[in-house]
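Hi R.,

As promised on Friday, here is the backbone we talked about, encoded as structure tokens. Could you run it through your design pipeline when you get a chance and send me back a sequence?
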């Protein structure tokens, strides 16, 4: 499937280039989300590395699984959909998620993300950083 190849290329060959060096995505382990089954995260750059200013995460949601409704009280969150399909319910509005979609989730606004039959692959950014 083409969408999986795009995500795997991003996952295996992706890099975050900084003046201090390069972070290779392939060297970062996946971790299971503590609260949502079928959701895994790869923490590209964290609060510790940015003095709390921002954090970036790859998010992999298994087919037909979801990140349940929640809100971040302190962080603005953005999603860039790399591959797959699904729906984001953002402040009670449904946004169709497919490759190329960017979504902004304001702080203190309830949202959830539901993966479709192909699964869903996101690049999530938080400002200030998710801790």
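Update: got your reply. Pasting your designed sequence below so it's all in one thread:
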């Amino acid at each position: 499937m083409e969408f999986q190849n795009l995500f795997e290329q991003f996952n295996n060959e992706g890099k975050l280039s900084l003046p201090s060096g390069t972070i290779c995505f392939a060297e970062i382990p996946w971790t299971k989300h503590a609260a949502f089954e079928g959701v895994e995260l790869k923490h590209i750059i964290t609060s510790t590395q940015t003095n709390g200013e921002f954090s970036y995460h790859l998010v992999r949601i298994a087919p037909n699984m979801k990140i349940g409704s929640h809100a971040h009280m302190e962080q603005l969150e953005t999603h860039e959909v790399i591959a797959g399909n699904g729906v984001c319910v953002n402040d009670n509005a449904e946004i169709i998620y497919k490759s190329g979609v960017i979504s902004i989730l304001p702080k203190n606004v309830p949202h959830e993300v539901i993966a479709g039959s192909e699964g869903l692959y996101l690049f999530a950014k938080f400002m200030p950083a998710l801790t």
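One thing I noticed while checking it: Residues 51 and 88 are 29 Å apart (CA to CA).

Thanks again,
M.
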